Amino acid sequence: MSAIIKNSLQKGISYQAYRELVKHLVDKKSNTGEEKTKALANYTKLNDKRMKRWDKTIKISEASNRRINEFRHHITWLVITESWCGDAAHMLPAINKIAELSNYIDMKIVIRDENLELMDAFLTYGSRSVPKLIMIDDETGDVLTTYGPRPSEATSYVNRFKAENGELTPEFKEDLQHWYNDDKGQNIIEDVTEMLCQLEPNVCQ
């Protein structure tokens, strides 16, 4: 496992580099991943617009800001994603906003289909679901915890729908996008800052 993570970290790129990659793919009418289709290219284009909006508008509360600034543990966030993933387009900008506020958090991004050994070590109910955030201790190389592919409230929303209706419908997926838009990244910020508290309890005192 440590070798797989080390290899993926070496291939990881910054959030800014990832945003440039997505913009380049939009210009080429393409997408990340092994499968190249018009639909996935269109999702990539839509997600570029989503990320551009969230990069400008996501706000972090004073309480969350304080928690982030009090975190004093050197960690790396390794994020697995794909350009066409709708959940990732909402989550990555919020995760990046948190990382930018801390000198102790280094964020790197890798593409799922280029890192399947890594992805298969962090499946969600047996599925290669993205985005997946892996928090790694810089000193020991240990995996401290993981997060994703959705924030806690969206996960509950999805699980309830699946329990009642089976597969997710196109209508539900549209409703989920409305949820993300209404939430404005706050559930993600709350979830992740709470995880920082669990890693370093004095942050939440």
TrEMBL record:
<protein>
    <submittedName>
        <fullName>Thioredoxin family protein</fullName>
    </submittedName>
</protein>
<dbReference type="InterPro" id="IPR036249">
    <property type="entry name" value="Thioredoxin-like_sf"/>
</dbReference>
<dbReference type="Pfam" id="PF14595">
    <property type="entry name" value="Thioredoxin_9"/>
</dbReference>
